[in-house]
Sequence to fold (332 residues):
Amino acid sequence: MCSFSALRALVAPGYPLLLLCLLAATRPDLAEGDSADPSFTSLPVREEMMAKYSNLSLEIHNISLTEDARLNKKSPVQKNITLEKPSDLELICQLTASRDLNSVNVTWTKDDKLLENVFNTTKMGNTLYSQYRFIVFNSKQMGNYSCFFNGEERRGTFNIRVPRVHGKNKPLITYVGDSTVLKCECQDCLPLNWTWYTSNGSSQVPIDVHKNDKYVINGSYANETRLRVKHLLEEDGGSYWCHATFQLGESEEHIDLVVLSFIVPLKPFLVILAEVILLVAIILLCEVYTQKKKNDPDDGKEFEQIEQLKSDDSNGIENNVPRLRKNESVEQ
Fold:
């Protein structure tokens, strides 16, 4: 009875507005991203989300699966979808087979987690269609969505990602004392914000251009960013990261910077120069030795005389041997 009186007091003139305010305050606002995920809940909540984001254009993406014995049935057919802002998505998987498809069951998963039965499946002839429609309004809805046809063991996967940021693939090489510019860009997209980081071991340190005049961040267009590093030192070398922020998440890329001292490029030249000097020295020594032999002919004559004397001595000894033998025979 007390509760009934209280209720009558609330609906009395002047109180309906208070009652509506209390109901609005106690009702959870699912659209603001609380613990309940409207993409994976009941159909009424999904319909409410559809109404709130009714101004979004519908994007339809399709994957076709066929019955083919040559294919590895456990390998999924994949399709990449790039989103940078909230979107109304409809994912369609269609399976075409020659046999009866009435016994084929369809399931959907997100990142290998089973989704509720909030998709539509229809059969037309020998083709089975499965449609899953939802609103992507924050990073929680990004990921891998897969349709799985149990009877045929066929799988299709939609990879939903934010746009990819591109930088220089090869390391950027420069020298001490110079300035360099690191560039990142995003093709056909407009990030909300760009941020640069340096790598400090395993962590990333944001670059604050207001506290360090060594860095300057600018860009000619909204889809690109440039980091200028002035007065380079060897310790400025390392990995630099550019982060692009979108409504649905972030994307990043890293660029490797190598800072060399001027002695490094001179090393090969110095090695070649040392080899040339050594070769020239050897040639000069050979020339000096040859000229010395030409300028001292007496050394050659003395050598010939010594050889001649040795030859004469040996001949004299050989001639005396038969004479001695002859004299000995006569005496006998």
In short: The chain has five helices and 17 strands. The longest helix spans residues 297-331. The radius of gyration is 45 Å.
